[in-house]
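OP here, attaching both records as promised.
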Amino acid sequence: MAVILRADDNNDLVRLLQARLNRDYPLHSRLKVDGVYGPRTEAVVREFQRRAGLAIDGVAGPATLGRLGLNFDQPPPLPTNLPFFYTASGTWATPFVGPPFDTGWQLERRGLVRNQPVGYPAAGFLYPNPFMSYNESVALGVAELTRLILMNAGGFYLCGYSQGAEVVVRVLRLMLPGQPLAHRAADLRGAIQFGSPCRPPGPTRVGNNPPGAGIAGFYTPEEFRSRTYDFVVDGDMYATTTEETLLQLGYEALTPLELELPFALEILTLIQRNEFLELLNLAYAPETFAKVVRTAIVVGDFLARNPHIHYHDWRSFNGQTAVERAVGIVASRV
């Protein structure tokens, strides 16, 4: 029997629902985990349904619960010949949140893939663990995704968002000749990337030509670019950094950030580089001063519009959101 939670329910399943909403959506869910499906719980469910593209009725039925990863009913087994769709979430998100999971979830509901989130910390910048850097979090994501690829035979897709997109690119590098995953390169059906800090410069396979390139300064390997679809919305500085700004230098400074000795050593190394020394001598480096101004403009626009979080609702791709377009691309290839 399908589980349906609604107003006036009072049970342990409602407690699970409240706790999951608080964990995955802390910015708009601060519910008391008491098992009571009251007006506040209903309001948060409605907001979640709106953001997830579900029917907005305030009732937590199979679709809403399933989208939250709360599957109380035994689903029919998926055919074992379906490709895996590995999804890596962005910084500070759980595996069940963000464009990659949304894409995989919709494809799985169509019976086209087996959606498999990658469980890794997705941490960085002193949150939620001040002793874990972004770089360490990415390394743990690479290790877990590698484990999944080695464990499961057959075709697969890779899909990442933000930090998760860097995880994907680093795994692609492990598929190059002579690397540990080289024998699985032929099984890669495609890679879907949202707001990737490792986007290569030039036109994307989805038809647009964003300025600059990924902020990380290293990019999707040439060998896999014909199978990679990079989604970039206008103004997303993580995927559109240019040499006219100092964003890449800032990225290099912040990704090792942690309350441990290794970060202090990284900073000591960084401040000895020419780019940093120029920042301390702006009066004698007009080009650097211009970069500072351009960086401030780019960051200001980014903070004002926050395009990085709109891959699920901005219709920037021929009238579709990035998630909708990604679902269509994979559906046409399966």
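Record two, same layout:
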Amino acid sequence: MISGVFGDTVSESVSVMEGDSVTLHTSLTEVEKGHVIDWSLIALINDPNTSCLYDGEDGRFRDRLKVDYETGSLNITDTTTEHTGRYEAELIRSESSGKSQSLNRSPKCNSTKIYKKNINPEDIIITFNLTVSGVFGDTDEVKSVSVLEGDSVTLQTGLNKEQYEVILWNFNDIQIAEYDQDIGAICLYDGEGGRFRDRLKVDYETGSLTITNITTEHAGRYEADIIRLRRLDGLYAGCFSTKVYGKILNIADSTEQFTVTVSDPGLSSAAVAGISAGGVGVVVLVAVAVAAAVMIYHRRRSCQNNK
């Protein structure tokens, strides 16, 4: 049996790596006869004959769900980042407004159908905040980006808004941008010496960062710390764009790294080659002139000796 009374809400945070399996435990020893576990939108558990596992939105849970019919716990196999989010298990009593009986009489399981959540406030709710860390955030991979001075550059995260809640951008371990889509807050920092003032833009869908009118002082290492499910209240504490903050350590679920090189547009490779060739030409001309002067000198000495 579960500890607690009906009307209670229990919450738990769970983290897993992409590709692994995870079990969301209800902490029940057994589901009493006539009771039902309703995993909102993805599973309805009573017994093997009357239960149903749903594919979910876009079929993201198809062939990935398993259940323990004794405890009502839910297992998700081969997890991906799109499985990150909040899961709710509703323990429905047999006498809960006749809801359990109507569920038990369901004639068949339509796994492709998407049902809306309908929770009775008298039932016990067990909530899980699941975070799946993806391989795309491997910090061993550093993307190299080259740009000409005066141009704009966008550092692409490759994310969509369902894959993160917070993104923190850092330049050489100094914070330059923070976007918390959960509360709709954004802060763009000026950086050391104000080098990024009025130069930064953030894409609200992907979290990608654009630097406009770039100069050589913007060359360096950029990191996007990606937080899929915010676990810290008050992470965003107001925007003070002129303040200089260091990188927050050990907070990201994954990190994207970029090395940006900024070149002077006035010195193209052809120009550099021309300068080099011109320098070689000058050296050759000087050498020829010196050789000619030596030959003339020796000829004059030879003529004077013959006289």
